[in-house]
Every structure is written in C-alpha cells, then in structure tokens.
Amino acid sequence: MTEIATMDKITSLAKRRGFVFQSSEIYGGQNGAWDYGPMGIELKNRIAAAWWKEMTQLHDDIVGLDAAILMHPRTWEASGHVENFTDPLVDCKKCNARFRADQIPEENLAAKKCPECGGELTDTRKFNLMFKTHIGPAEDSASIIYLRPETAQGIYVNYKNIIQSNRMKIPFGIAQIGKAFRNEIVTKNFIFRTCEFEQMEMQFFVKPGTDEEWFNEWRNRRWAYYEKLGVKMDHLRWHQHGPDELAHYAKDAYDIEYLFPMGWRELEGVHNRTDYDLSRHTQYSGKDMQYIDQDNNNERYIPYIIETSAGLTRNLLMILCDAYDEEQVAEKGSADDWRTVLRFHPSLAPITVAVLPLMKKDGLAEMAQDIRRELKEDFSTDYDQGGAIGRRYRRQDEAGTPFCVTVDYQSKEDNTVTLRFRDSMEQVRVPRAELAIRLRQEIKAYKRKV
Length: 450
Ligand code: ATP
Known about the structure:
This protein is α+β, with helices and mostly antiparallel strands. It has 14 helices and 23 strands. It is globular. Adenosine-5'-triphosphate is lined by residues 150, 182, 184, 193-194, 197, 199, 266-269, 309-311, 313-314.
C-alpha cells in the first residue's frame, strides 16, 4: 500500500468514473460549483444516510428537520451574519488576483505585495459571504433575501415548534442535512471549499451549566463516528479554536481535522454556541424562546446549544481521499500490474456487488443476470460482461465495489459462484443460495486491513 492520493489523481478519477463533474463544463465551468454524477450521488446519499442513522435512529432524543433554504431576512440580522459573516479581501491592482487576507503570507500583506505577481495590493476590506438576491418582482431593499449560509438557523427558528409538536424535553437535539451557500473568495482544492455545498448539522439543546459536559460528550461521539466509518484514525486530529479564531457566538470550539492531500484541514466543527442564537432570536422576533421545564417547577431558561457541524460534500472528498489506494498486484486471470482501488466501507460503496459472467456464451450471461436480479432487491448491483475478467475486476476496484460475483462453468454444474473480495482479492466458492446472506455478513463484519 502506498500513500499517493494527490488531489489531481482524485479529481481525475472522480470525473473518469462519474463521481463529480465540473458544473456547466461545456461553458468553461462555473467556479465553486460541482455536479455529482451517477457514482457521486450514490456515495453522497450513503454518507448522508450513515450520518442520519447515527444522529437520529441511534438517539431517542434527536429528531430530524428539513427547513427551507430561503428564510426571513431578519433571521440573518439576528444570527449576526449580516454584520459579521465576512472575510477580509484584498485584490492585486496589477494581475487582478483576489485573495483572502488571512490566507497570504504576512510579509506580503504588510508590504502590500501580491504573492503571485509582486504587484501592489489594495487595502483589506470586509466582504460578506452571503449570497443576496430578491424575492418577488421588485428589486429594492425591501425584497432582499439571502441563500442560507448554514443550515443551523432553520433549526433554531423551529425549536419551539418541535418542542410542542413532538413533546421534546431538554436535553434534546435536532438534526438536518441540506444545502448551504457561501460566496467564497477563493475556491480551490476540488470540492473542498465551494460556493454551493451541503451540510449535516445537529443542534443539541441543553440546560445552561451542563453545556461543558455535553460539549465533551459530543466531541467524543463525533470522533467515535469516524472510527466506526472506518476512516484512517491517524489522518484525524482535533484542533481547538484559539481566542482569535472563536466565532462571535462561541464559548468553545474544536474542529475535527483530516489530513487531506493538501494538508490538515477542517472536516467538522463541534461548537458550544451558548444561548447566543436563541437570545438573539428572542430579541429580533419578539417571541419568547425560553424553555419551560415542567418537571422542575416550571423553571424557565434559554437553552445552551452544542452544535456538531459537518460538510457533507467535504465528507465525500474525505471519504474519496481516505479510500484511494494504488498497489502492485499479481492476480489470477490478469497480468502483473498496478491497480487503483477505492477501499470504501461496503456500506458506503456506490455499488455493493458486481456480477460478472466469465464468458458471454453457454448460458453464463443468463445465469449471471438472473443472480443480479435476485440480489437487486437488497443490494446496489452492477453487471459487466465486457472484456477479460481481470480487466473487469480492475474497473470494479477503481469504482470501490467491495464484492464481485463471478459465474463460470462450474456454476452451471453445482450452482456455486466465486465471491471475490476487493481489498484482499481473495476468492471463495459460495453456493448461490447463500450469496445474499454471506454478503450481508461480510458487510457487517467489514474491517479495513490495508
Ligand atoms: P472554513 O474555516 O473552512 O471556512 P468554517 O469554520 O467557516 O469553515 P463552519 O461554518 O463551521 O465552517 O461550517 C461547518 C462545516 O461546513 C465545515 O466544517 C465544512 O465541513 C463545511 N463547510 C463550510 N464551508 C464550506 C464550503 N465553502 N464548502 C464546503 N464545505 C464547507
């Protein structure tokens, strides 16, 4: 096994195999936006489903929500985004390149010297990251509306609705997956930082005074989640926000960082947002956001919020990088060569099992198609009858398919098939009737070894 996941390799594999395409490519591409192809949407759906299961199904005290992207503009005044959601921007007067002032070397900033061409830089100015548009036919200040820059606010404005409709008691959480939009100054590194992306956020409402305990609890749970997904744990680390990094609402914040090909970068944030958001919504909406504790003499308080905020599309990039491998192999049925393999956890792989007839003739293709039909109900499947069997294995390896089932002449005689494992390339003979059960067991017991 070698560590060779460069961003170029990931980007080209993602395009070649239909994971991710550049948006509007035929027009030269749209910066900051990407399209998820047939494999990408399957992978994204599975990552979202794994998170959703983890955060809702496995917790009695967390419920889901799907709030609208367009929200009342006062929301963003209350949240502080209109005032504070800015990045420092500088432009080069000579080459017109644009930079985030906090991302260029300090000496360049001090000397006002462009890091690319040496030209003169403008003064730093604040740039609000929210996309602004108008609702209705009149384009005036009264019709301004924003595309949400985070999903969290949709949860806060519904917290009372959810307490009432679902009889939730503190501590409890609300989980949501959805699109968010940020007018990022610099988008690079493929889908790492984009203007349109998806978030998976969970807001946990707790009694003030218990917030630090819950904050630690959620840090532990989120760490354990990535471990369960089979992510390389030596590629994950914590980064605590220093005083100069803390957001205006946060009392404490830790990022889970992943070692991407371009270095350690934020994957998910766990934040203690205090009672900031609900207090501000009380102030701006005039609605009482206090929780009334009926089990405790109707004690009233504004809950503190512990937030876990992960990027879904950034998770997808992490899963691609984490799974990527190249190795030299000598396998039965193929010449010695290198293979590219995506070692996805089988529960995340876009295709779980591919059925391959050794030959198209002599009824093998019909039998293979029949087996695929049987497996379809329970697994996502593929069928491939073109080319040498070794080449077909390679194609499935590169797509991250954990299991291949090969139908050969022996299958016709004794109704057994070959089950081939992606990671070890090991092959075992399995009775056709036991195939589905065996696959289910293998998925459940999967542990990445390489
Ligand atoms: P950064 O410092 O990288 O701009 P942030 O600290 O502003 O990120 P949060 O507001 O905490 O990020 O967002 C939570 C999560 O949403 C991030 O951990 C990341 O996974 C994801 N995310 C944020 N901005 C983007 C983006 N522009 N593109 C893709 N994912 C993003």
